[in-house]
């Protein structure tokens, strides 16, 4: 596992401008293995984000500080010198890169009719090092079926940065492939911000199983309805649901007999009734299972719980 993480870090470092790439590759292997992101900010040192915090890769000396030109060169490289073709996601603040990497982008928003249509004067980027961890959901997936072998709608819970997306990605793979006791299911992934499949030019860069369809870059509320109509899924998977329209779409899917897999920022099941958007889902009993992630890094543990039915008094 550590060798894989080092390899992924070095692949990510290859996307940096040459002068920063060399410095990033000189990082000790122990730090490479813990890296989650590489961050470039204009007039600041290059940093690496780990579970312990953000650490400088380059010294705080003028000649090693990140420049606007560094960022522009990086954007040109990852878009293969076709920035216009990436405009739709760029205006949403991110780019998906060949190899399954994801680049968050900050700068000056260009507005048209009150909507962001582009970003200019780029001031910072965050290169997310997406590391697949095949097998982490193997012990979890069997616990998400009822006695009749039906997959139950499930929430994955942890605080921010707790590994929800990584677990969800492998859970999708497990459900799509099936196992000795459970048949393979058709899974539709509505990947609004390209975080699950990391699709590049329409092709998923992560392994999600051979019975999985991906709708990339589409808002969840619209995408859930689209895949329900077009792909006859047995399971729909989305990353975090955060808007009222997403809640209604999830409820509609559940009423059609589709199982849902989703993530949510929460430390435990007890926090759910305090989250306004989830109260209606809990009342409607959309989700009956929760996977609670505890710990960090290689010490993460996964606990499956039953979500209790919530009546009005429990939510008041």
How do the helices and strands line up, and which of them pair or pack?
Blueprint: H1 2-13, H2 18-25, H3 29-32, E1 37-41, E2 47-50, E3 53-56, H4 68-78, H5 87-90, E4 94-97, E5 101-112, E6 115-128, E7 154-158, H6 164-177, E8 187-191, E9 212-216, H7 220-230, E10 235-238, H8 244-255, E11 259-265, H9 276-283, E12 289-294, E13 301-306, H10 312-315
Parallel strand pairs: 7-11, 7-12, 8-9, 8-10, 10-11
Antiparallel strand pairs: 1-2, 1-6, 2-3, 4-5, 5-6, 12-13
Helix pairs in contact: 7-8, 8-9
What features would you describe in this structure?
Helix content is 28%, strand content 26%. The protein is α/β, with parallel strands linked by helices and 316 residues long. The strands form 2 sheets. The protein has a 7-stranded mixed beta sheet with strand order 9-8-10-11-7-12-13, sandwiched between helices. Strands 3-2-1-6-5-4 form a 6-stranded antiparallel beta sheet. Strand 1 (37-41) and strand 2 form a beta hairpin. The protein is globular and about 65 Å long.
End-to-end Cα distance: 46 Å
Radius of gyration: 20 Å
Strand tally: 13
Element-by-element helix/strand order: HHHEEEHHEEEEHEEHEHEHEEH
Derived from helix and strand composition plus strand pairing, the structural class reads alpha/beta
Percent strand? 25-35%
Alpha plus pi helix count: 10
Shape type = globular
Q: Estimate the mean pLDDT confidence.
A: 88
- Indicate the percent of residues in helices: 25-40%
Main sheet makeup: 7 strands, mixed
**Largest beta sheet: what is the strand line-up?**
9-8-10-11-7-12-13
Low-confidence stretches: 310-316
